[in-house]
Amino acid sequence: DAGVIQSPRHEVTEMGQEVTLRCKPISGHDYLFWYRQTMMRGLELLIYFNNNVPIDDSGMPEDRFSAKMPNASFSTLKIQPSEPRDSAVYFCASSDFYGYTFGSGTRLTVV
Amino acid sequence: DQQVKQNSPSLSVQEGRISILNCDYTNSMFDYFLWYKKYPAEGPTFLISISSIKDKNEDGRFTVFLNKSAKHLSLHIVPSQPGDSAVYFCAASEGFSGGSNYKLTFGKGTLLTVNP
How far away is chain A from the Cα of B91, in angstroms, using its nearest Cα? Predict the structure, then answer.
């Protein structure tokens, strides 16, 4: 298995633009998590899904952030409009009974 | 409001010596604790875990200690090796009922540097 696949690896965008981050979880994993890593806050959970259904989105910072999981093999995290303070590394992780597997992350820079 | 706290942003040790990374938590409902290791440009990877019914768990050079009364856990690496240089995240969950059925709360991480 190729693991959790995130794209793009790096994204540089201008303030006000829409940004879409993508994640392909490991086949058979029934949970999917989106985390954001910053120096100030460390790794913080944004939202997670169980069997494609959003369970807890209390970590989503603002209405500018939205996430979807249209099927078991794909999820997106969208920021519209983006702001410089959204600059961070965004991780997707999927899990089964044995635990989490993280993707390599998307480094987002909003200028 | 940080429920999981790693108060040391960085730690430097000599190769062969012991590395001790600390973590404190405030949520009394946490009952499962994990350590993750992260290299640059990679996602965190699972290292070791401990359930609240135990006070120690060992896996090779890595040992995690849990002090529930103090709401404190620590990760010991003996002996430390240069390849252990990475960011270490402490994480906790509540209501653990299986590997998939939990969300993890992470600390900010500690950068460990092991010098040759």
Answer: 10
